[in-house]
Fold this protein.
Amino acid sequence: MKIGVLTSGGDAPGMNAAIRAVVRTALHYGMEAYGIYDGYKGLVEGKIVRLGRNDVGQILNHGGTILGSSRLKEFKEIAVRQIAVDNLKEKGIDALVVIGGDGTYRGAMALTEMGINCVAIPGTIDNDISSTEYTIGFFTALDTAIGAIDKLRDTSFSHQRCTVVEVMGRDCGDLSIYSGIACGAEIVITRETGFNKENIFKQVTYAKSIGKRHLIIVVAENITDVFELAKEVEEHSGYESRATVLGHIQRGGTPSAFDRILASKMGSYAVSVLRQGLGGQAVCARGIEIKHIDIQQALDVKRTVTDLYDYLPKLN
Ligand code: ADP
């Protein structure tokens, strides 16, 4: 059996650990392993290279992905996917492990329908894949956000400011609420909480009235312009305010212990699913257990919002 591995969509710390586990597990079972560079784009362009044990040495502890990642809108077209399938068939590759988010899962399902068995592993810092409790990269990105917000807290306190911090997570507020709780933010704004400016001004003004020295507001990306928000908070409350966008630093860095272990387990597990001759499967973590379910079923799982929102202390 020959299997390929690729990373696709937004990168996440821990992807390398997953790649290593896929390759080394495949080799252990006597399979040939192939790395596909630059995601589905590279698959269409034929960037497929055989990998040996040493090719995935010294990568487990590195952020990013040695295989590179990309986005290719045209992969939704059957004619484009057919080129990818032909490239795989030419090399005799029967099956693929893909590591990425929702979009990557859809690509994997479409490829499975065209005769290439695919197993998908959740790799995204956003934790926005509902079928798994945690995605590879989430806790590393969370540590990065926490480190940055802790630093902002130092200066926020010194200068008696209101600090507005934008955290990643376009469709899922987990990075915001987890970092908000961990850093003692007074206000967290995500898609789940909704965005009510008047309410924010009320809370910040109240904080000022009770003599609170400084404040931290965590805002998920894509909600509002945090620089504008900081300006308006200053006008309404009297707190001098500053905004910071954490941005892409959250995507990189050394994967945490949790992400290394999760990725290693999922990579190895994905190969075992392919060895059973299964395709169109998504690997998921439920508690300490690793399982697999149909990709379509995985995509259909309704998102449950973390109960951490209930634990955010109220200002009044
Ligand atoms: P993520 O996997 O992180 O959610 P994207 O949404 O950008 O990132 O998806 C990654 C890639 O998956 C896309 O660039 C595209 O090549 C492929 N993809 C996304 N949706 C589909 C689809 N419906 N059918 C086939 N391929 C898709």
The two ends are 62 Å apart (CA to CA). The CA atoms of residues 284 and 305 lie 17 Å apart. The longest strand covers residues 161-167.
